[in-house]
Amino acid sequence: MTAATEPSTVDGASTGPGVRISDLTVAYRTPAGELPAVSGINLELAPGSITGLVGESGSGKSTMALAMLNAVQQPGRITGGVIEIDGLGDVLSLSPKQIRAARGGSIGYVFQAAQNSLNPLKTVGKQLLDLGRSHGVEDKRALVRQAKELLSRMGLSGERVLDSYQHELSGGMRQRVGIMLALVLNAHVLVLDEPTTALDMISQANILSIIKDVHAEHGLTTLVVTHDIGVVAEVADRVAVMYGGRLVEQGPTVDVLRAPSHPYTRGLITAIPRLTGDPDVAQPLPGRPPTLGTIPRQGCVFRERCAVYAAGAREDCETVDPPAYDIGAERLVACHVVEEER
Amino acid sequence: MLKFLRRLAGHVVRGLVMIWIVTTFTFVLVRLMPGDPVQTQYETLLSKGMSPDQAKAQVAVTYGFVPHGSFWSQYGHYLWQLLHFDLGRSVRAQGVSVTTEVLSTAKWTIGLVLAGTLLSFLFGVVLGVVAAMRRNSHLGNGLSIVGSLLHGVPQYVMALILVTFLTVKFKLFSTGPVDGLLEPGFNGPYIASIVAHAVLPAVAFALSSFGGYLLSMKSSVVSVLGDDFILASELRGIRPSIIFRYVARNAILPLFTVLALSLGFMVGGAVFIENAFNYPGMGAMLVASIGQRDYSEMSGAFLLITMAVIIANICADMLYTVIDPRVRRGEGA
């Protein structure tokens, strides 16, 4: 990928821009009033890093990913917070025109593979041109060349793929097309929502290695949203764990996975079945994740499923929402007990 | 292109087979009818003083088959004549061939039906998109309600209301008959006459059927708006005008089936409107021929309606191969 073929560069830096999310809150209008799906999230994506955001379905991780592009869907609404991206400013205070230019232009978003993220009636190439037209790209040829380069970098024949309709592509191919469309305009922040879900194991491994390579080559700052800890272990430098709309733990991937601090993270990791040894070693987390309506309004959102809380109920777990305690080594944990026992 | 032609050929062959089956049914049905029209006419002619041979010949001309031959020889004769577009003679209008009669009324009906259908399709689709886009506002709800209401009003009621108000009460349109001397075709007087006489029927038609298109288009647009690729396009920063085109093109697809089918059915389905407006179309002819037990005209009309439906179906199917790439790949026969 040569700099000369690129229509524009955000700042010419070889590592991606930094992203700072502070105090992000997203609420959904329901018959029971506005309920927070994401509340008080503080997360920093270091320039050039890959951050994995893990959580169960309904934990608010996809909502958060959409918030990165100020694209939370009705009846949801971002009620507070700042998402600052270097070279772009606060995403949440951009004008509609600016935010449309930023989507695709500065921030690339890749949909879940199983979702049909392409117009079924148009070839990939025509949709690429629509993308170029929407972002005022003058040089259509350079755009197509850039797209072909990206596709061939990901092991696809650019010529063939651009002439194809969505139904002519496999899941893994669609995913690579999604990545191409997200990056072809030189976005330097990449958000991937469940990039490997619904793909077979071989395609998963393939997509993950592509994500790592493209990330490094293009100098991106990447957020990977997934429910699969394996994906995080594979690609992410840092991991953030979400539960009930809150970040319960974050830190360097290796450290967090090797020695999880938060009772929820520990539960998640012991729930993973091993390939070798006794499958019964895997312990499912008891209980169900909360829904919008059942998230506790007060105290720790996890306490109802928490082994530590069950062993000995503490008052502050019920009354005080645990803040993100800094436990050193760049790790933050939102748990009163962990903080106290340190 | 080759694939397209192969597909088209397959459709035409299947269409011809279907037409053959339907004509066979019509042929058999005519002879299953109570009162045996063939025998009745034969006996009527005999009682008028014709000799048996003359009467036989006359009946043969009228129905296009030999009344006293064996079933199979009659059937063979009928098919042979059909192949030559000979549907026999009209009983009602003595001496006129059914083919002429049917085709001359069909011309008027096709003008009416085409205008009415395109009008209602256009209005239905445009208003359906508006209703879908503004579905949470008074405008959207109002459109849906108006659509449902008009959809529920039968064509003949709509036709009578228009006749009453626009020709009798306010005399905006004439109630006179169409000048039978006009030559149908692409010429000024014919078109002017069509317009003058077809406006009200076409409007009645459009008013009573656009509601269906409106409601279908609305639900189709709402469903496409919820599709993943629309959100994906938004997240890629695609321009709203382009996204609108994505939505419109995807949403209108299922409506083409409805459009094509109704075009086919409406050749015969305009009966009430034609009657109310005294319009010289197929529907009016069909009613008159039923009233006078003119079986050869009836079966001719049915044949044309059948063919219209089959051709409309083929057109719809071929249209899909052009506008929907997913159908294009699914190999036809």
Helix content of chain B: over 70%
Helix fraction of chain A? 25-40%
Strand coverage percent of chain B: under 5%
The residue ranges of chain A in which pLDDT falls below 50 over 5 or more consecutive positions are 1-13
- In the CATH classification, which architecture of the largest domain in chain B applies? Orthogonal Bundle
How many strand segments of chain A? Answer: 12
Number of helical segments of chain A?
13
Mean pLDDT of chain B: 80
CATH architecture of the largest domain in chain A: 3-Layer(aba) Sandwich
Helix-strand pattern of chain A, N to C?
EEEHEEHEHHHHEHEHEEHHHHEEH
Of all chain pairs, the largest interface belongs to: A-B, 32 and 22 residues
Order of helices and strands of chain B: HHHHHHHHHHHHHH
List the helices and strands and how they pair.
The complex is a heterodimer of chains A (342) and B (333).
Chain A: E1 19-30, E2 33-45, E3 50-54, H1 61-67, E4 76-85, E5 89-90, H2 96-105, E6 107-110, H3 124-134, H4 140-153, H5 158-162, H6 171-183, E7 189-193, H7 201-218, E8 221-226, H8 229-235, E9 238-243, E10 246-252, H9 253-258, H10 263-270, H11 307-311, H12 315-319, E11 325-328, E12 331-333, H13 336-341
Parallel strand pairs in A: 3-8, 3-9, 6-7, 7-8
Antiparallel strand pairs in A: 1-2, 1-4, 4-5, 9-10, 10-12, 11-12
Chain B: H1 2-32, H2 37-47, H3 52-63, H4 71-83, H5 98-133, H6 138-152, H7 155-169, H8 188-225, H9 228-235, H10 240-269, H11 271-277, H12 282-291, H13 295-323, H14 325-329
Helix pairs in contact in B: 1-13, 2-3, 5-6, 5-8, 5-10, 5-13, 6-8, 7-8, 7-11, 8-10, 10-13, 11-12, 12-13
